[in-house]
Amino acid sequence: MQNSEKRSTQESGNLREVAIIGIGETRIGELWDQSLRELGINAGLSAIKDAGVKGEEIEKIYIGNMSAGRLINQEHIAPMIADYAGLDDIPAVRIESGGASGGMALTEGYLSVASGLHDVVVVGGAEKMTDVGDEEAKKILSSTADWEWESVFGATFDSLYAMMARYHMFTHGTTKEQLAAVSVKNHAHGALNPNAQFQREVPLKIVMGSPIVSDPLTMFDCAPLSDGAAAVVLCPVDMADSFNKDPVAILGTGMGADHMAVHDRRELDAMKATRSAGDKALSMAGLKPEDMDFAEVHDNYTISEIMAIEDLGFFPKGDGGPATERGDTSLHNKIPINTSGGLKAKGQPVGAVGINQAVEAVLQLRGEAGDRQVEDAEYGLIHNIGGTGASAVVHVLGRWR
Amino acid sequence: MQNSEKRSTQESGNLREVAIIGIGETRIGELWDQSLRELGINAGLSAIKDAGVKGEEIEKIYIGNMSAGRLINQEHIAPMIADYAGLDDIPAVRIESGGASGGMALTEGYLSVASGLHDVVVVGGAEKMTDVGDEEAKKILSSTADWEWESVFGATFDSLYAMMARYHMFTHGTTKEQLAAVSVKNHAHGALNPNAQFQREVPLKIVMGSPIVSDPLTMFDCAPLSDGAAAVVLCPVDMADSFNKDPVAILGTGMGADHMAVHDRRELDAMKATRSAGDKALSMAGLKPEDMDFAEVHDNYTISEIMAIEDLGFFPKGDGGPATERGDTSLHNKIPINTSGGLKAKGQPVGAVGINQAVEAVLQLRGEAGDRQVEDAEYGLIHNIGGTGASAVVHVLGRWR
Fold it and tell me: Which domain holds residue B328?
């Protein structure tokens, strides 16, 4: 709507309020005994069951997925997953935006309900990263950077994010201990999450002493590449009472963009796409960063979380590292970040991440997050990045009273 | 809205009327001198120029693409194309549903404007099929069938569609001459389209005598695998007057689905997904098949066009072959089908096809289709299939007065 002042449109779009009424996810990990379609079905059916919705009530399915074509030789996965879930009559489409595929799928699902075209819609995310081996999986992940101008010359995700980390350290004095503090915190949170890939605390000493992947990033600065799936069920808020659970409203959605290749960006210590997506989503919700009771941010690397909590307005630029070290982003403190464990500890099934984040936010807003519950959580934000930051998407969720 | 009688929702979604105000496409063919990003940019910038829209007015970009990950080692292509078009501030997302990726992207673009969230949106489609060689391209195309249950055992697109053709011949008496008549007609139409890959007429004798690909389908029963891109610009109808060209309205959109694997389907001589998508789109537009002045249907094989014109209600089941032989589907006759040349002669840049179809429909409805103009065309339908029919999408377009 940003240009509405320039060209006039008489009709005002009447966006309906949209709620998440069901959630489901698989445990995340190296799930060699389950195929992509099984993961997708398990998450989807859990969400449908959680909502208490009947299969024939679902009008459309969206599935976020980064690279099933390369990872399991299968494109066109959305109808495949729908079919094997017994929902072969329901149109299904895949949304892809690298690591932001899940969040972008949530936006499309939101639009399809907000517009009034559909009432009950399922949005899932699924990825099977581990069947091809770690080297190949990393190569495929790097194909969401600019292949012709970055990856083909040997730049990996690890090295591109390491450059950002180095620059952030140089410009703002961020330390390796502060990067490590992100990892320690997210592992502590993950230890409280029964669906997390890594469910144990990791002390600072271990993180600091772990092998260098791409200086200054060590093994514990990098999220794993994982298998997993997650799903949510959406419907208009005023229809939500007829289902099982208290609705959680999608109050705002925003997308941001940037140059594809890191070398074209104007900033290396910040992500323009994140800032833009966050501003749009919060503005649509009529809320501010300080109104958020928690956030799930895209910590594919520890430096990513530090940049995100700055770019989203939770902390001033340069204070992300110190804030983490102070404990401001830990559970029960100022603004708990990644209570789920984040990509670092909950795991990184790439195209599913955005939906895993939505699942965590709904658990928090329902008060069902168990040992990692944020007290009286009313509003939360979820933030999902594609590539090395060429795309980002943010949603603001809230309890519906 | 199909379930609105079961669960009540007070707010009625207020879909805005949406228009296509700009179109652009590349020539289709074996374009070895252009990369995917160049194709995408060329189509997109043509569409923007055609509309007379400024870059900064665009609020979102959708790109339909089947398999850039496997074809050119690049996922996350939507922000890449936006970036290289100088639109790096504009959020861009990829939509994938095999061969129906373009049409599905058009649906998402439509929703983003109809909902009121965005005003000016660009929807493109792009595919680069020829850089990997014909064998590999066919293998990748076959990954939009069910890889684990069909393709891995050697079933190709050619053989799966050949089975449908054989069954259609057995059940309805469709002949090889009737299949060939589709190809002859589409080549005749393609000869009138300066963007078509094949711009010459091919006589029945040549089609009938061409080498068998998968019996009964010959080389001329199969569409080529091509490079190409296309784009359209969307905005609310009531804003369209401030741009260059007469708007063409999107009057209806519908998606359909079916089992992923052909062996799970209840019908082999018809596509349930097509029927369902067509019914929904026509019903939303408040129109009937006989109201259409032309249609672009997904003729990846000649048998596909015959099934489509039956399943969309232009002809009774079994009459698709005879109708084509009678000339009913030729230019200037009863219901001209694939005036562009269709996938057979215009070419098949897989993920772009649905947008190429939209471009042809807009040309016809504007009266800009030159030698292949349908007289006084008021309404047209476009039909796009994913895989072997597990997904389908139909749009009904019309002149806006």
Answer: 134-224+252-399
